[in-house]
Protein backbone atom coordinates (compact mmCIF):
# COMPACT_ATOMS: atom_id res chain seq x y z
CA UNK A 1 0.00 0.00 0.00
CA UNK A 2 1.40 3.46 -0.93
CA UNK A 3 2.51 5.41 2.16
CA UNK A 4 -0.05 8.24 1.68
CA UNK A 5 -2.91 5.73 2.09
CA UNK A 6 -1.83 4.62 5.63
CA UNK A 7 -3.89 7.24 7.57
CA UNK A 8 -7.01 6.31 5.54
CA UNK A 9 -6.46 2.61 6.21
CA UNK A 10 -6.34 3.42 9.91
CA UNK A 11 -9.81 5.01 9.71
CA UNK A 12 -11.05 1.77 8.13
CA UNK A 13 -10.63 0.08 11.50
CA UNK A 14 -12.62 2.91 13.14
CA UNK A 15 -15.47 2.65 10.61
CA UNK A 16 -15.67 -1.13 11.00
CA UNK A 17 -15.94 -0.76 14.79
CA UNK A 18 -18.73 1.85 14.43
CA UNK A 19 -21.12 -0.72 12.99
CA UNK A 20 -20.33 -3.53 15.43
CA UNK A 21 -22.68 -4.34 18.31
CA UNK A 22 -21.73 -2.23 21.36
CA UNK A 23 -20.42 -4.19 24.34
CA UNK A 24 -20.67 -1.40 26.90
CA UNK A 25 -22.57 -2.50 30.04
CA UNK A 26 -25.01 0.21 31.16
CA UNK A 27 -24.62 -0.70 34.83
CA UNK A 28 -26.13 0.42 37.19
CA UNK A 29 -28.98 1.74 35.00
CA UNK A 30 -29.41 -1.70 33.39
CA UNK A 31 -28.72 -4.70 35.59
CA UNK A 32 -28.24 -8.06 33.95
CA UNK A 33 -29.55 -11.11 35.79
CA UNK A 34 -26.86 -13.32 37.26
CA UNK A 35 -26.51 -17.06 36.73
CA UNK A 36 -29.20 -18.83 38.82
CA UNK A 37 -26.65 -20.32 41.23
CA UNK A 38 -24.56 -17.14 41.60
CA UNK A 39 -23.31 -16.74 45.19
CA UNK A 40 -24.55 -13.37 46.46
CA UNK A 41 -25.72 -11.94 49.74
CA UNK A 42 -26.93 -14.46 52.34
CA UNK A 43 -30.46 -14.93 53.61
CA UNK A 44 -31.71 -16.42 56.89
CA UNK A 45 -34.81 -18.42 56.02
CA UNK A 46 -38.08 -18.96 57.88
CA UNK A 47 -40.50 -21.86 58.23
CA UNK A 48 -43.82 -21.43 56.38
CA UNK A 49 -45.47 -20.04 59.54
CA UNK A 50 -42.77 -17.36 60.03
CA UNK A 51 -40.67 -19.02 62.74
CA UNK A 52 -36.95 -18.91 62.07
CA UNK A 53 -34.99 -21.92 60.80
CA UNK A 54 -31.73 -20.87 62.48
CA UNK A 55 -31.06 -22.78 65.69
CA UNK A 56 -27.99 -20.78 66.71
CA UNK A 57 -25.66 -23.80 66.44
CA UNK A 58 -22.71 -21.76 65.06
CA UNK A 59 -21.73 -24.48 62.55
CA UNK A 60 -21.72 -21.87 59.78
CA UNK A 61 -19.33 -19.70 61.78
CA UNK A 62 -16.97 -22.62 62.39
CA UNK A 63 -17.02 -23.58 58.70
CA UNK A 64 -16.22 -20.08 57.48
CA UNK A 65 -12.61 -19.81 56.27
CA UNK A 66 -12.70 -16.03 56.49
CA UNK A 67 -14.06 -15.80 60.05
CA UNK A 68 -16.83 -13.58 58.70
CA UNK A 69 -19.78 -14.94 60.70
CA UNK A 70 -20.65 -14.16 64.31
CA UNK A 71 -23.49 -16.09 66.03
CA UNK A 72 -24.86 -16.08 69.52
CA UNK A 73 -27.53 -18.68 70.29
CA UNK A 74 -30.13 -18.47 73.05
CA UNK A 75 -32.98 -20.57 74.49
CA UNK A 76 -36.55 -20.17 73.28
CA UNK A 77 -39.27 -19.83 75.90
CA UNK A 78 -43.02 -20.32 75.55
CA UNK A 79 -43.44 -16.56 76.01
CA UNK A 80 -40.85 -15.70 73.37
CA UNK A 81 -40.30 -18.33 70.68
CA UNK A 82 -38.27 -17.62 67.53
CA UNK A 83 -37.80 -21.18 66.22
CA UNK A 84 -39.71 -24.45 66.76
CA UNK A 85 -36.95 -26.17 68.78
CA UNK A 86 -34.94 -25.43 71.89
CA UNK A 87 -32.49 -22.83 70.58
CA UNK A 88 -32.46 -19.93 68.14
CA UNK A 89 -29.92 -17.47 66.77
CA UNK A 90 -30.23 -14.41 69.01
CA UNK A 91 -27.39 -12.50 67.35
CA UNK A 92 -26.34 -13.20 63.78
CA UNK A 93 -23.87 -11.12 61.80
CA UNK A 94 -22.00 -11.54 58.51
CA UNK A 95 -19.07 -9.25 57.81
CA UNK A 96 -19.02 -8.63 54.06
CA UNK A 97 -15.61 -7.02 54.28
CA UNK A 98 -14.30 -10.53 55.02
CA UNK A 99 -16.76 -12.79 53.20
CA UNK A 100 -15.41 -14.34 49.99
CA UNK A 101 -18.85 -15.71 49.02
CA UNK A 102 -17.54 -19.27 48.92
CA UNK A 103 -20.76 -20.85 50.27
CA UNK A 104 -19.10 -23.18 52.79
CA UNK A 105 -21.35 -21.78 55.53
CA UNK A 106 -24.42 -22.79 53.51
CA UNK A 107 -23.07 -26.34 53.18
CA UNK A 108 -22.47 -26.52 56.94
CA UNK A 109 -25.95 -25.38 58.00
CA UNK A 110 -27.97 -28.39 59.23
CA UNK A 111 -31.40 -26.76 58.93
CA UNK A 112 -31.14 -24.96 55.55
CA UNK A 113 -31.57 -21.76 57.53
CA UNK A 114 -28.76 -20.14 55.60
CA UNK A 115 -28.82 -19.80 51.82
CA UNK A 116 -27.41 -17.30 49.34
CA UNK A 117 -29.33 -14.92 47.11
CA UNK A 118 -28.24 -13.51 43.73
CA UNK A 119 -27.77 -10.01 45.17
CA UNK A 120 -24.26 -8.77 44.43
CA UNK A 121 -24.38 -5.06 45.23
CA UNK A 122 -22.29 -5.25 48.39
CA UNK A 123 -20.34 -2.01 48.32
CA UNK A 124 -20.64 0.87 50.75
CA UNK A 125 -18.66 3.65 52.37
CA UNK A 126 -18.37 2.44 55.96
CA UNK A 127 -17.20 -0.73 57.68
CA UNK A 128 -20.29 -0.76 59.89
CA UNK A 129 -22.75 -0.81 57.00
CA UNK A 130 -21.06 -3.92 55.55
CA UNK A 131 -21.58 -5.95 58.71
CA UNK A 132 -25.10 -7.25 58.13
CA UNK A 133 -27.19 -8.02 61.21
CA UNK A 134 -29.84 -10.69 61.69
CA UNK A 135 -32.57 -8.15 60.96
CA UNK A 136 -30.97 -7.36 57.59
CA UNK A 137 -30.38 -11.02 56.70
CA UNK A 138 -33.73 -12.45 57.78
CA UNK A 139 -36.10 -13.35 54.91
CA UNK A 140 -39.17 -11.17 54.42
CA UNK A 141 -42.62 -12.30 55.47
CA UNK A 142 -44.88 -14.13 53.04
CA UNK A 143 -48.68 -14.22 53.23
CA UNK A 144 -48.76 -17.46 55.24
CA UNK A 145 -46.38 -16.12 57.90
CA UNK A 146 -46.54 -14.21 61.17
CA UNK A 147 -43.34 -12.49 62.28
CA UNK A 148 -41.33 -14.21 65.03
CA UNK A 149 -41.50 -14.55 67.98
CA UNK A 150 -44.73 -16.53 68.15
CA UNK A 151 -46.04 -19.83 69.48
CA UNK A 152 -45.29 -23.15 67.77
CA UNK A 153 -48.12 -24.52 65.60
CA UNK A 154 -50.54 -26.29 68.03
CA UNK A 155 -50.03 -30.07 68.12
CA UNK A 156 -46.83 -29.91 66.03
CA UNK A 157 -43.28 -30.70 67.10
CA UNK A 158 -39.96 -29.43 65.78
CA UNK A 159 -39.64 -32.62 63.71
CA UNK A 160 -43.02 -31.95 62.08
CA UNK A 161 -41.68 -28.62 60.81
CA UNK A 162 -38.84 -30.42 59.05
CA UNK A 163 -41.23 -33.04 57.65
CA UNK A 164 -43.07 -30.19 55.93
CA UNK A 165 -46.28 -30.67 57.93
CA UNK A 166 -46.54 -27.00 58.86
CA UNK A 167 -47.49 -25.03 55.76
CA UNK A 168 -48.80 -21.78 57.26
CA UNK A 169 -49.27 -19.95 60.55
CA UNK A 170 -52.06 -21.40 62.70
CA UNK A 171 -55.26 -19.33 62.67
CA UNK A 172 -55.14 -16.72 65.42
CA UNK A 173 -51.33 -16.71 65.70
CA UNK A 174 -50.09 -13.39 67.04
CA UNK A 175 -46.61 -12.02 67.43
CA UNK A 176 -45.25 -12.27 70.98
CA UNK A 177 -43.51 -9.40 72.71
CA UNK A 178 -39.85 -9.42 71.73
CA UNK A 179 -37.72 -8.49 74.70
CA UNK A 180 -34.45 -10.29 74.07
CA UNK A 181 -34.13 -10.25 70.26
CA UNK A 182 -30.65 -9.10 69.37
CA UNK A 183 -30.17 -7.61 72.78
CA UNK A 184 -27.30 -8.04 75.15
CA UNK A 185 -27.76 -9.05 78.77
CA UNK A 186 -27.51 -5.43 79.92
CA UNK A 187 -30.43 -4.48 77.68
CA UNK A 188 -28.39 -2.59 75.07
CA UNK A 189 -29.35 -3.21 71.46
CA UNK A 190 -27.28 -5.58 69.34
CA UNK A 191 -23.72 -4.36 69.05
CA UNK A 192 -22.98 -4.13 65.35
CA UNK A 193 -19.54 -5.04 64.19
CA UNK A 194 -18.48 -7.52 66.82
CA UNK A 195 -15.90 -8.82 64.34
CA UNK A 196 -15.09 -5.60 62.52
S1 LIG B 1 -19.69 -17.48 51.99
FE1 LIG B 1 -17.70 -18.32 52.70
S2 LIG B 1 -16.57 -16.52 53.44
FE2 LIG B 1 -18.71 -15.87 53.24
S3 LIG B 1 -19.56 -16.17 55.28
FE3 LIG B 1 -19.97 -18.08 54.14
S4 LIG B 1 -18.21 -19.44 54.58
FE4 LIG B 1 -17.64 -17.34 55.21
S1 LIG C 1 -27.44 -20.44 60.05
FE1 LIG C 1 -27.48 -22.67 60.22
S2 LIG C 1 -25.37 -23.28 60.78
FE2 LIG C 1 -25.58 -21.07 61.20
S3 LIG C 1 -26.15 -20.93 63.34
FE3 LIG C 1 -28.06 -20.93 62.17
S4 LIG C 1 -28.68 -23.09 62.05
FE4 LIG C 1 -26.54 -23.07 62.70
Average pLDDT, all residues: 90
Number of helices: 5
* Uncertain runs: 183-190
**Structural class category:** alpha+beta
Question: What ligand molecules are bound, each kind once?
Answer: iron/sulfur cluster
Task: Report on the biggest sheet.
Answer: 3 strands, antiparallel
* Bulk shape: elongated
CATH C-level class of the domain at 38-162? Alpha Beta
CATH topology of the domain at 38-162: Alpha-Beta Plaits
Write the layout of secondary structure elements.
Layout: H1 6-18, E1 42-44, H2 59-63, E2 69-75, E3 87-95, H3 104-108, E4 114-116, E5 131-132, H4 134-137, H5 158-162
What do you see in this structure?
The structure is a single chain. With 196 residues, the chain is of the alpha+beta class. It has a domain at 38-162: Alpha-Beta Plaits (2-Layer Sandwich), CATH 3.30.70. It contains five helices and five strands; from the N terminus they run αβαββαββαα. It has helices spanning 6-18, 59-63, 104-108, 134-137, 158-162; strands at 42-44, 69-75, 87-95, 114-116, 131-132. The strands form two sheets. Strands 2-3-5 form a three-stranded antiparallel sheet. It has a two-stranded antiparallel sheet with strand order 1-4. The longest helix is centred in the first third of the chain and has 13 residues, at 6-18. Bound molecules: iron/sulfur cluster (2 copies). One iron/sulfur cluster binds next to α3.
